[in-house]
Write a structure and sequence with these properties.
Shape: globular
Strand content: under 5%
Number of domains: 2
Helix content: 10-25%
Largest sheet: 2 strands, antiparallel
Length: 212
Amino acid sequence: MTGAPKLPPTVELSFNNIFLHDPYIAETLLPQGAYVDETHLRAYPEMNGILRQNLARYKNACTYCAGNNAVCVYYPPQTRPSATGTRCVACRYTKHKCSNVTPGLDIDRDVEFVYAPHADEPAPTHATPSMAIRVNFLDDMIRRQRLQAWPCYLESEGPKKGAPKRRRKPRPNEHSALYRAPPFGQSASFADKRVVTVDEYDKDEWEVCDMI
């Protein structure tokens, strides 16, 4: 498959429908040393403070994600598990009322992990998203020459490192290499596995920053 497929005319090009294609597989399709674009970058769960092995989705997509042909990514709550669910990642971005926030949510029944764990990985968990994961991920992408520098729309220094800058937003790219990849979880492996941890950061310090 070559080139970027055309999005359906009823789907607006935005960051709301990037949660469909697998960004890890898309990265393996890039030449060595080629940079990921902003659309591709935003599709990694680490950009929302979620490790790859902990990425989970609602089994039944919310109304908004279904309309945007997107995976309905489960966003674990900041405190204790909620019996009514939490807004998915796309609805958090757009401030939509997520239809998956309903009474009687059963995490084991209604939410599933996207990837089977690798042999050297712990069992997946619905861990609280952490800014440290985003920071470590971006530093690793630069080290591996998949990013030239920190995104201009994120703070790169200081106590709010990783948090969004005011009046700066990423730009959607309809020609992104992301759209050449299959859907999330379709392949059980990818070639260039990264290791992202929170060990070198104080978790409590970083979680006060807004992820969106």
